[in-house]
Amino acid sequence: MIGRQTSTEPTPALLAAQEKLETLRKQAQAELDALAESGTARKRAAPVSRPAAAKLSLTELGQLLLVERRRREAIAQGALASDALRANLKPKSSSPKWPLRPSAKAKDEPERYKTNIRRSSPLKEDTVKVYPSLALAMLQAELAAPGRVYWLLKYLDAQGRGWLDVDEVRLQLTYKKSPLRVCGWRRLRQIFSAGEDLFWNRDGVGRLWIKGPARVALALGCERLKGKPISLPITALLGGIKRIRANLYSCFFSGRKENNPIARETLRELTGVPERTQRKYEQVADVASKRNIAIGERYSKEAIEERAWRQGQAAFLYLDTHGKQGAPGREYVAWHMPNSYVGPHSQCCKGRQKKINRQLRALVMKGMRANGREKVEQLFWANGAAAGKGYNRHSDIDAYWPHGRSRREHYILWGVVSGERW
């Protein structure tokens, strides 16, 4: 039987297909080698070896080239996108990474300094409006450094826009010849990261959005702005961190309506500052203190024993040599009271404080306001008539009032209506 013979010579169509396949393989391998040299192939895909590329079919090579072409088109389109669009495309993170170096437009420091940086002469009189409640909240949260930058940003935002350019802030606060310099650029980046979402937010176009007092108070756990705002000099924000904490601490005394006596233990609860540190801060911030002495009933053995039972070692015998209480030479039962303190800063008008408290009440949940708090009875009154009315309402506690001005400035005499003995 004679079998059918088959032809072993390739046809012209098969030769053309093989040449085309070999050309596509060489193009794919050349593109992959170029990607491997530039370092991109390490991140996106492992480089395809020559034996693996030889095994690829025509369809697989076509798909690979199509994917690579689309990827390059996407990269080209992303390079042409605006800064705002790229910022929206990036996932938001809780702690944004601040640039290690300033942008290109911030490198012309000497030229911009001549026109944009504030001069040192007006800083002696310039002030910024500070709320004492926010100052104490910053001190308790150990955020003195970000708090200092927050008040400086408020001062720099003279137009009230609510935002500042990051490069401009860098020049104002880190440039060596700037009168507002507080730290270097590296330290300022750390402060920006620590105060993110508390005092400010940064967008994708290089702007720093400053939060309002209501938002800051809510973030720090302050439910209400108390006392009067003060005019804090800018020079008080330019020293070391110890001086910054001392000035934040002194804002409490400067914003009080009346300098009534207050104990060290109460100050520790309100400010979070220990007693020993309180004395150091008062020396640094020039906080003046005055002693208070209460003058009670005429001296007798029973009266001094009862007052010693109430006041402890603070009770003593007072000899009225000048006749302030009656005839000269009489003896009275007296005792030492907590000191009064006078802050070094001047008070300013409340302005929008009432509106800020309304905003704060709207932000705070109802269950977090004043639940479980005890009412504190008033002890100190403006005059004797008011003290008498207060004593009639609550006869179980003492009622104090200032008993005129003392000739000496370092202490004040107080009159008292003693409460009923328990």
Radius of gyration: 37 Å
What proportion of the residues is helical, as a percent range? Answer: 40-55%
Major sheet: arrangement of strands: 7-8-6-11-10
The helix count comes to 17
Helix and strand arrangement:
Layout: H1 12-38, H2 40-44, H3 50-55, H4 58-80, H5 83-89, H6 109-116, E1 127-130, H7 132-140, H8 144-156, E2 163-165, H9 166-174, H10 185-194, E3 200-202, E4 207-210, H11 213-219, E5 230-233, H12 241-254, H13 264-271, H14 275-284, E6 288-298, H15 301-311, E7 315-320, E8 330-342, E9 346-347, H16 353-363, H17 384-393, E10 399-402, E11 411-417
Parallel strand pairs: 6-11
Antiparallel strand pairs: 1-5, 2-4, 3-4, 5-9, 6-8, 7-8, 10-11
Helix pairs in contact: 1-4, 7-12, 11-16, 12-14
Describe the structure.
This protein is of the alpha+beta class. The protein folds into two domains: 100-287 and 343-373, no CATH class; 288-341 and 376-422, no CATH class. The chain contains 17 helices and eleven strands. A five-stranded mixed beta sheet has the order 7-8-6-11-10. Strands 1-5-9 form a three-stranded antiparallel beta sheet. The chain starts with 11 loop residues before the first helix and ends in a 5-residue tail after the last strand. Residues 1-6, 41-54, 81-95 and 366-374 have low confidence and may be disordered.
